[in-house]
Amino acid sequence: MPRKDIKKEQTKVPAKKREKSAHRKAKRLSGYLTPTYDTLVSAIESLVMEARAGLKAAMNAIMLQTYWRTGEYIVEYEQNGSDRAVYGEGLMRRLARDLSLRLGRGFSHSNLIYMRKLYVASQKSQTSDLFQKSQMSGFLTWSHYLEILRTDDPLEIAFYAKECENSKWSVRELHRQMQSMLFHRIALSRNKEGMLALAEKGASVQKPEDILRDPYVLEFAGLPISERLKEGRLHAALVEHLRDFLLELGRGFSFVASQYRIPLNTDHPCRVDLVFYNFLLKCFVLIDLKRGMVKHQDIGQMNMYLNYFKSEVGGKDDAEPVGIVLGANKDDLVVQFATQGISNHLFVSKYQLYLPDENQLRGKLAALLDVARGKRKSRKQ
């Protein structure tokens, strides 16, 4: 074939094909297509690990769907089974025995009770379709649900399932958050609509108030409950158990500094006890620890810290810093007058060194819900 004809033939090659060929050639020249033995091993390892992770997630989803359907079958039988009265209360034990003989482990009496509860909880939930078989989370395992289903409140169940998925809690972390009554501590600061939103979306962080908890529960620090507790000891314990403290603070926090020095000419050295950055709010969060009652001077001091960070530390893309004065106790009236007129995001909260009283918190939340229902009825009338 003449050279001219060859040139014509080459021009007929589609542009995309020529681009791919050039790209392939560039890769070959850069050594991309001539890997070393180590890169070959690493590439295959990554491929297999990805496949295993995908397989594990798929198996987890199938298992949860199966358990949900098992619960559905049990409830359906309890309601409509022709011979259900024969077995009565002994149904679950007999079912556990027969299924274990046929299928092996995984169908114990307690597991069947939780499978039934998983299905019932999904039917009671008015705020989330999280439990429907087509909506099962790829992150939550059956072990997570065994923790979550220890409670009977549909709102609480939906909140912990959603927040666990959002925050990627391990089973141990989930257990700790439930023990510390996280749902109740957050819900008590919300109205009824806010409580329903907690169940639907989890604890969303959109404004500075959303990161605040009152009280903060610091039982993980292992400190004795004593009025003589020094601020230095509390500070050291929180730094030592930083991972647990970050879990208590909530989503979006990363640790920046301890005893951050502010170079101002004052009678006493200015140091912020703990500095964090919240990447959801895109701002610094300053925490000052007080061993006793929070005083108005403490609030003024934090306001100065916030002004300094706003002027000297934060970048142009950062939101205004948030300050939390964390004390063993506080007088709400003092806090009200001390913070009045302050434009900075400054909050005062309490901490406690022991897990909260479950019955007390449940009672408070129930009372608030009753008040909310009463107001709703009066509006309709």
Describe this structure in words.
This protein is of the alpha/beta class and 381 residues long. It has two domains: 17-77 and 108-207, no CATH class; 216-355, Trna Endonuclease, Chain: A, domain 1 (3-Layer(aba) Sandwich), CATH 3.40.1350.10. The protein has 16 helices and six strands. The protein has helices at residues 3-11, 15-30, 37-80, 84-87, 91-103, 109-124, 142-148, 154-167, 171-179, 182-187, 192-201, 231-240, 242-249, 296-313, 332-339, 358-380; strands at residues 216-217, 253-262, 270-278, 283-293, 322-329, 345-352. The chain has a six-stranded mixed beta sheet with strand order 1-6-5-4-3-2, sandwiched between helices. A hairpin with a 7-residue loop joins strand 2 and strand 3. Residues 1-11 and 25-31 have low confidence and may be disordered.
Summarize the structure.
The protein has 381 residues and is of the alpha/beta class.
What would you call the shape?
A: globular
Structural class: alpha/beta
Largest sheet composition: 6 strands, mixed
The residue-averaged pLDDT reads 84
Q: In which order are the strands of the major sheet placed?
A: 1-6-5-4-3-2
Q: How widely separated are the two ends?
A: 95 Å
Percent range for helical residues?
A: 55-70%
Rounded to an integer in angstroms, the radius of gyration calculated over CA atoms is 29 Å
Strand elements, count = 6
The topology string of helices and strands comes to: HHHHHHHHHHHEHHEEEHEHEH
List low-confidence stretches: 1-11, 25-31
Count of helix runs: 16
Relative strand content? 5-15%
Number of domains: 2
